[in-house]
Amino acid sequence: MASLLSFSILKASAPRASVSTIPAVTAPDQTNLEQQFGRKGIKFSDSGTVELTVRNGSSLKLHIPSGHVSSYKPKVYWKDDGFEEVLYSIGTRGGIGLVLDEIAEPGTPSKNKAFSEWNWSVRDTDSDSLDALQVEMGCTRGNLEVTYVVSLYPLCMATAVIVKNNSSKPVNITSAILSHFKFKKRSRSGIQGLSGCSYCVHPPPSFSFGFLSPSEALKPEDPGLFSFGWKPEKKPGEWSVQDDAITILRHKLSRLYASPPEERSKEFHRTTPSKFETLDQGRELFFRVIRMGFEEIFLSTPGSYAEQYGKEYFICTGPAALLVPISLNPGEEWRGAQVIEHDNL
What we know:
Blueprint: H1 2-5, H2 30-37, E1 42-44, E2 49-53, E3 59-63, E4 69-73, E5 89-90, E6 93-94, E7 96-103, E8 121-127, E9 133-141, E10 144-153, E11 156-165, E12 171-183, E13 189-192, E14 198-201, H3 214-218, E15 239-241, E16 246-248, E17 253-257, H4 261-264, E18 275-280, E19 285-292, E20 296-301, E21 313-328, E22 333-341
Antiparallel strand pairs: 1-2, 2-3, 3-4, 5-6, 7-12, 8-9, 9-10, 10-11, 11-22, 12-21, 13-16, 13-18, 14-15, 14-17, 17-20, 18-19, 19-22, 20-21
């Protein structure tokens, strides 16, 4: 992953002009964006999207100005047409999106509207011989300056966020980068890498690109034909430890994997794994999810609710900072990222 960390936004860089000095693109002029930011492998379309395609044919589709990644299609087989869609997406729902909220104090209700309602402006694009492509977007919300970067490589993609507090007072934020992974069969979906990790039942944050509301995600479900191995979830806030090496995802659940808040104040405590893998046994594919800057992992599965949208199954997961907000002093910035990579070739 050295190429990712050394590629543009995730490393320290020279000071940039404030995002507020850059005109916002609320209704993108695609011709203008193509002229300013189009590169080989980076194509802005009339439909309000930008498509990134690297040398081996792996691609992703990013919507401007919402910042919604609706498609990631890497090369996973050696044959010429060996590409598979990773993300579950229907219209503006699903895919990959950024959740970010400012709160007055830890535990108090949000005072900002949903992040998805913001309008991103394209600030820059970059490329490295068609083996590394990147789109950088920026916007402001009150005194927060936010940079969002989407990158594509032959065997992985990354989404990164940088939040800077430009106010004269400290602020607290919650955030997550959530991805909807598709699976061929509900009965053959799983994840591995979270064994021994603490978790609690936790509703998903409110975001417009999700499929389940917080109340729907926590509503108990009759397992029906999938009752084998089923155990009812505990009440929200009650902590458990993941015992199984592989977590089967055919049942409905909504969890936050993390160290309990009281444990994090100790000098030594067990942290959440920095990576885990999704297992799609129906397609015999796996994808590794890596977190950077975040201390928690959110995981939600729809159970039978997925049947409302078709035969395919999906989960929602990604690195998060929901249980314990991130505190930013005046002038301070915070960085977080998610990487999705694979070794299927």
